[in-house]
Amino acid sequence: MADRNAPESGRIAFDDFMKVDIRVGTIVAAEPFPQARKPAFRLRIDFGAEIGVKRSSAQITKHYTPDDLVGRQVAAVVNFPPRQIGPFMSEVLTLGFPDEAGEVVLVSPERPVPDGARLF
Fold first, then answer.
1. How far is C-alpha 48 from the chain's CA centre?
2. What domains can you pick out in the chain, each with its CATH number?
C-alpha cells in the first residue's frame, strides 16, 4: 500500500487522470464494521441510476458516526476492482485527506450535486 503522505509522484498525462473514475454519491447506510482490523464503517453509497448503490469500507471512525454519514455526499473511485476486506466486499474507494493526526477527513462537494456526477 502506498504511503498516504508520500511526496508528489511526478507528472502524468491527462489521459491517465481520466482513467480514474471519481464520482459523487450519497451515503444511504452506514454501520460499524467490527470485523475490520482497524476501526471502520461499512457504507452503502448511491451513485445514481447509471452506477447504482455500491458498498465501501472506510476507516473514518475518528471524525464521523453512522448517523453523521447518512445523507452526506462523498467522492469515491468507482472503477477499481472490488476488494475483499474480511467478510465484506468493498466495491468503491471512498476518498479523504489525512488531518494533522493522520485521521481521514472525507472529500465532499461544497453544495449538492447530482449523484453519479464525475469529477473533472
1. 15
2. 19-106 (2.40.50.140)
